Amino acid sequence: MKLIEIFENGFSELNFRNFLVHDSPYFKILNFNFKAGQELPIHSHQIEGQLSIVILEGEGEFVGENGASLPAKPGSVLVSDISEPHGLKAKTDMRALVTIAPPI
Questions:
Q1: Is the pTM of the predicted complex or chain greater than 0.90?
Q2: Confidence grade of residue 87 (pLDDT, cut at 50, 70, 90)
Q3: Which fold has domain 16-101?
Q4: How far apart are CA 55 and CA 51, in angstroms?
Q5: Which of 86, 96, 38 has the alpha carbon at shortest distance from 64?
């Protein structure tokens, strides 16, 4: 077992920050911290697998292809094929936990 305190990771005024929480042959976990107005641009990965994005703190929106968006608030969980276009925009300071399986 290992314990990681992700709320100890901070924010940056310049760009969102991401921190590797866990990496194994089975899955990868990343912590993303956004200041209000920052975003993870829409992108996709041409591999098989899925990802989840859990909003821990703050508010924003999940964004997809052609401007589609869904609200993102604490407790929101987005599950998607990793090949499907996805991104995230922060309306307030926001923390998200991303899990990718299998890891890329």
A1: yes
A2: very high
A3: Jelly Rolls (2.60.120)
A4: 13
A5: 86
Closest CA to 12 of 37, 30, 29: 37
What would the pLDDT profile of 22-69 be if each residue is shown by its tens digit?
999 999 999 999 999 999 999 999 999 999 999 999 999 999 988 899
26-55: string of b/e by CB count within 10 Å (b at 16+)? ebbbbbbbbbeebebebeeeeeeeebbbbb
